[in-house]
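Sample intake sheet
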Amino acid sequence: MLSSRDRPFLVFRRSWPNRYTLPVLLGSMEKEGLTDSFSVFMAKTIEEVLQAAGSGEGILCFSFMTPHVGQVKEELQRLKNILGGKVLFIAGGPHATGDPEGAHGLGFDFVFRGEAEETFPLFLRQYLANRIPSAPIIQGGAPVALEKYPPFSLRYQLYPPLEISRGCLYACTFCQTPRIFGRSLRHRHPENVADFLRQTLPRGYLQTFFRSPNALAYGARSLQNFDPGAIEGLFMACRESGVQGIHFGCYPSEVRPDWVNPEVLGLIKKYCRNKTVVLGAQSGSDRLLAKLRRGHTTEQNFLASQWIRQAGFRPHVDFVFGFPEESLEDRRLSLRLMERMIGEHGAKIHAHTYLPLPGTPLFEKGPTILDADTKNVLRYWQGKKILDGWWEEQAVMTRSILEWKDQGWILSSREI
């Protein structure tokens, strides 16, 4: 084994948005036996990056989302000016996948597109052998089997919510998920979940949260394949592992309204500790839902919220404003549905502003600007503590994304 002095460094630029990504990448390194080949650091600031890199040679890794392009570009330019040519700068994550050419244009030497549990360790081996690829964009291969890699990093004690499903059966026009991970579902087997949970118990992790684009699709393979038995099997395996609390159907394992029913809510009530269920309604306009290819109706939104309340949970309902081609009437319909959910179901609303994301069908269409009346209603409910979310901050992010696109920092005009 090389001493730390002789090993190249591998620095991950750690941030709140990539808190779920880095543990998985580190876990893939651990599985492939690569952690002792590098001096590994996780840096929360530029100063920590510079301290970790010193005057040595190595790799600096960024994983980021589109709203953070400006900050990443600024940091990258500063670091390249200081660290020079002895460092390779690599990028991955949702933005790099949606706009690989644009990410390369920001100044990265290599850009990873798609899932990286396999391509990232392979790249590290190539680096160690002085055989790095000639092409700057590294394309992910076949969809990764979730059970092949750990969902966290034991060595660095990073335990994000455990990913139980990957992919999405739908094709919402504003969302990157099905375009990054595919439109088929992959699930982590209950026993595999339980095995990893048992590894975290000695470290004090007695509660488990999950990560899924639609928690209620766990075990399903198609739109007609709802599987409550698979969900109960997951809960039973978690209990048998020794965890004291299961949290399912809450962030970051939200549910779609068209998959909600009293049977599955009864299972969540029986086995889980969460008091809320997060519901992705997105809009109260059937016209807009159809244009977005959501695959459900406003009636299903309302009925799901009602069933959640009747099962003893508080609905926490996502709504998005500012979609391209969104009309004032679409917004009024959303506000009316939100008001009904609040009044009849005791719901709490989680409000968003639409973010244009490269690689999605809506990216080239301009967002609509929220009118004063809509903003006033959202702020009123926010003051009453029955609405939360970063909708005002996201409005600023949307303007920044459009500016970066105009400046050529974001290039993608094609669907992933």
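Comment: Residues 309 and 340 are 13 Å apart (CA to CA). The chain has 15 helices and 15 strands.
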